[in-house]
Design brief:
Layout lengths: L4 H12 L25 H10 L2 H5 L18 H18 L4 H10 L8 H11 L6 H16 L6 H8 L10 H24 L10 H7 L3 H16 L9 H19 L8 H17 L6 H10 L3 H10 L3 H12 L7
Helix pairs in contact: 2-5, 4-5, 4-9, 4-11, 5-8, 5-9, 6-13, 7-8, 8-9, 9-11, 9-12, 10-12, 13-15, 13-16, 14-15
């Protein structure tokens, strides 16, 4: 019998991809061994599992930066994820790295994000004695929570990239490092675009010393970031920006924190969102029996702390569902006979 389609694709990776690429055939594998697919290499299979997961679909109703904005064109956590994926794939293709691995990490990197963006994350981190970090929760989502507690059984390389996509982490693969940088590029780019759409910023507000290095419009800056990473990283065992562009990005991020992320008008509803999350956390901690069965089963089987299970439930909610739960539990309704 001839080679399977998957084996031909693995062979193609070996012959064509960069010597620095993570090859599908060299994966460290999954926590639970499985029979290989005859068509798809392991990272493509991981990508498909994430794409078909419930936690991926819920991203469409989770805040990116602006809470429940009145407009159809503001980003959500899902559109952010797709933009990260597209930026990362562009860079990976240019550097002949593994696009399937890059895409799987990118699509999965925010699966554990809370409703109401970082306001929701701050609230759970504040009240949970074990803390709460969305990158760790994303890994927990794919390992222990998806498919009613079975998890997605993803490869070690995908889970490593998801866990280490934030600034304080450093993925072991170059593909993971591409996603780590692409995440920052995407949110700075699209958050500025949304801020301009919302009348909080104008392109001309960006300091000229930043514009002189990376461009004066959102389109110019995105293009410059991606070209710079490809040029600077080409032929090296690392993913990086040139010093000048990295410094400009740092200054642009500081500018965004000052003008957008900490803008009182833009973030005026965040305190309400945090209070809502804390109220739900305290309620479910007192009424554990109202948690889904698969979470209660984890408490029984593994002795997991109630606080963690409550965070699992609330952290997975969409903005809309969290608000509906709050209204159901705390807002009095008109009495009628």
């Amino acid at each position: 019998m001839g080679m399977l389609i998957r084996e031909k694709l693995e062979q193609w990776e070996k012959e064509y991809l960069s010597p620095y690429a993570a090859l599908s055939m060299a994966s460290k594998g999954r926590e639970r061994e499985e029979e290989q697919c005859d068509i798809r290499p392991v990272y493509q299979r991981d990508r498909d599992r994430i794409l078909h997961s419930k936690s991926f679909r819920r991203l469409k109703d989770k805040t990116q930066v602006f809470l429940t904005p009145e407009g159809d064109h503001y980003r959500t956590r899902l559109t952010h994820t797709l933009e990260v994926s597209q930026n990362a794939r562009t860079i990976a293709k240019a550097l002949r790295l593994n696009e399937d691995l890059v895409e799987a990490i990118a699509l999965g990197h925010d699966l554990g994000h809370t409703p109401f963006g970082h306001a929701g994350e701050r609230a759970l981190d504040q009240v949970c004695p074990f803390g709460f970090c969305h990158s760790e929760q994303s890994v927990r989502t794919v390992e222990a929570l998806e498919k009613n507690g079975q998890g997605l059984n993803l490869t070690a390389e995908v889970r490593d990239g998801i866990r280490n996509h934030q600034t304080r982490g450093m993925p072991h693969t170059l593909e993971g490092r591409i996603v780590r940088l692409s995440d920052k590029i995407a949110y700075i780019h699209h958050d500025m675009d949304d801020a301009i759409r919302g009348g909080i910023l104008k392109d001309s507000d960006v300091p000229k010393e930043i514009g002189a290095v990376i461009g004066y419009t959102t389109r110019e800056r995105l293009d410059h970031f991606i070209h710079d990473i490809v040029t600077t990283s080409s032929g090296t065992d690392d993913i990086k920006m040139s010093p000048a562009v990295a410094e400009a990005m740092k200054k642009l991020r500081e500018f965004m924190f000052d003008r957008v992320y900490e803008n009182k008008a833009a973030k005026s509803q965040e305190n309400k969102a945090e209070e809502l999350m804390i109220s739900l956390y305290e309620y479910y901690l007192k009424h554990l029996h109202k948690l889904p069965e698969y979470l209660l089963a984890r408490a029984e089987r593994y002795g997991e702390a109630p606080e963690i299970l409550v965070c699992d439930y609330i952290g997975a909610m969409t903005d809309r569902f969290a608000i509906a739960q709050y209204e159901e539990l705390f807002i009095p309704k008109s009495w009628h006979y």
